[in-house]
cysteine desulfurase (Roseburia inulinivorans), 367 residues
Amino acid sequence: MVYADNAATTKLDIEAFAAMKPFLLDAFSNPSQPYSFSRTSKKAIKEARETIAMCIGADPEEIFITSGGTESDNWAIKIASCGGHVITSAIEHHAILNSCIALERCGGKVSYLGVDSRGVVDVTALESKIDTSTRLISVMFANNEIGTIQPISQLAEIAHKHNCLFHTDAVQAVGHVKIDVHELGVDLLSASAHKFNGPKGIGFLYIKKGTNIFPFVDGGGQESGYRAGTENVASIVAMAIALKNNCEHINEHMNKVYALENRLMSGLYDMKLDFIRNGADMRIPGNVNLSFRDFEGESLLHRLDLMGICISTGSACDGVNTQISHVIHAIGVPDDYAKGTIRISFGKDNSNDDVDEILNAMRKIML
Ligand code: PLP
């Protein structure tokens, strides 16, 4: 099998996996208990929080463990609270877009920033959308479909000029490009472990010290009383190891996946197919989003699947209609190309052989 869908999820880091086992089998205690048996798990969470914080330039008490990117995004948007005004972009993940809809249901107001044909948000339009009720501006670091990286520090600066909080959904970026929360100037940042070779169902929200927040999950005193529930110790430990391992080799991994992308692109250009490569030049490493003229993305996905290759599409098929994704729609890909959109996303475990297999399969299907 060739797995080229690393934007959907990544393979668990083997060291992270090994580190989970003791906390599932032996040191299984509830970290909140006062007896000495719980010391090991309590210490492990403390160390994991320190490691995560170090990887993004934060302080440990600014890291709040969540169940993943979706929860972190929900929490960030709900910090704006009912009645507040949020500004976000048209190409966010549904974890943000649907949280915004929920906010509107309880009396909040949401404004959307448009993007250009590369998927870069309209920075100049931001100031005109800010009003006295604006509490939060949320723009994703890198888009999950087309990979475009946004001018985050510029956007955060505008937000702060108007006394608004700034959140970024960095789920596709953390562990793949260098992230320093101070350099970015963000107040809130979402991350998800399974996107950086950690386990599924675990993530974190960075919340800058001094940010006015209220508990997201009410209950016990875990996560400083802001997100209650007995901690998933094994996954927290594994998340920290996976992140550290990725961050220590970030340049090496970036160079590797850029080389894989280039190999794929030159093979595709040689095939002389009619296609558009979506996204900006400043994009997340490994992302190749392509719209082929007069092809069906869904059909390509299934035919590649039959040949043992996992990729993704830019559309969701409901059996009757093939719907173009909101991202492909927002960047204005022409209709005869849009429905032929696929996303190939390479990760550190892919090889030149994987690229060649994908190219061979595409040659068989498309020529
Ligand atoms: N945000 C972005 C940009 C994503 O790509 C994803 C997952 O695909 C999420 C949020 C949701 O993350 P999770 O799967 O951890 O809930």
